[in-house]
Amino acid sequence: MKNPVKTLAVIATFIVSVSSASMATETSREVGAPVNGVISTQIEDTSPESVSTAESVQKAENFTLRCEALIEHENYIGLFEVCDRAIENDSTNAMAYVYRGVARYYLGESKVAVLADLNLAVEADPNFSAAYLARAGFFEITNQIELAIADYKSVLALEPDNVEVIGALVNRNTELKNWNDVVEGCSYWIALAPAEPAPYYLRAMAEIELGDTTSALEDLEATSKLLVAQNRNDESNQIKVIIAQLKSGNSSGLG
């Protein structure tokens, strides 16, 4: 499974898809649209009282698009300035704190400063799942996996059907060898995405570690069948080798 949190820049683009509901409460000051291919950093001073929910959502989306464009052009100084002005106009703009944290990261500011902005994003809107996701990404980058797991759980409390975050949580628990948590997470993942081979395989690996060979074999058989259905026959054959080893009583090196 693709890891959604390899870098803060990836987070910055990923948060759009995970937070559409929260965006209605976000920025009501729009960053100016590109003019002749130049990204404007002017922020429209619009009173939040006069902005409808639909307009607020649109302005939040526009703000995100401008920030992404600045990131694409590696204009982190411009990104910082845009977000700084947005925060001056609205200190509750959680998304602006997230993107300012991204800017600080790529401008080489201290980890303390980056984390401070991500913490402010969470404080500004505790129901904004993207803020937790961004902070989880920071914790991954700084190898604070337990803290990343805690933030992934916060995302899932707000978005219980977010399969990609469930996968990230399972992968982190696998790294930490939290096998019972891996089994639980994979079971949840399978309930949401029963045609996805990865959770069956990861659950099987955890079950092997827990000594539950019977369940592991069942999950490996399911993995193999799903891979065949997806025309991934080479991978299915690799799983069949593991099944044969497990049936022969040789489970060393399978985890």
What is the topological layout?
Blueprint: H1 8-18, H2 53-72, H3 76-89, H4 94-106, H5 111-124, H6 129-141, H7 145-158, H8 163-175, H9 179-192, H10 197-209, H11 213-229, H12 233-247
Helix pairs in contact: 1-2, 1-6, 2-4, 3-4, 4-5, 5-6, 6-7, 7-8, 8-9, 9-10, 10-11, 11-12
Structure characteristics:
2 domains, Serine Threonine Protein Phosphatase 5, Tetratricopeptide repeat, elongated, disordered N terminus, mainly alpha, 12 helices, 255 residues, 0% strand
- Helix and strand content put the structural class at mainly alpha
State the total count of DSSP E strands: 0
Query: What is the CATH topology descriptor of the largest domain?
Result: Serine Threonine Protein Phosphatase 5, Tetratricopeptide repeat
End-to-end separation in angstroms reads 17 Å
Count of alpha and pi helical runs: 12
CATH architecture of the largest domain: Alpha Horseshoe
Main pleated-sheet profile: none
Give the proportion of residues in helices.
Answer: 55-70%
Order of helices and strands: HHHHHHHHHHHH
Strand content: under 5%
Structure description:
The protein has helices at 8-18, 53-72, 76-89, 94-106, 111-124, 129-141, 145-158, 163-175, 179-192, 197-209, 213-229, 233-247. Helix 1 runs antiparallel to helix 6 (129-141). The chain folds into 2 domains: 1-159, Serine Threonine Protein Phosphatase 5, Tetratricopeptide repeat (Alpha Horseshoe); 177-255, Alpha Horseshoe (Serine Threonine Protein Phosphatase 5, Tetratricopeptide repeat). It is built from 12 helices and no strands. Helices cover 67% and strands 0% of the residues.
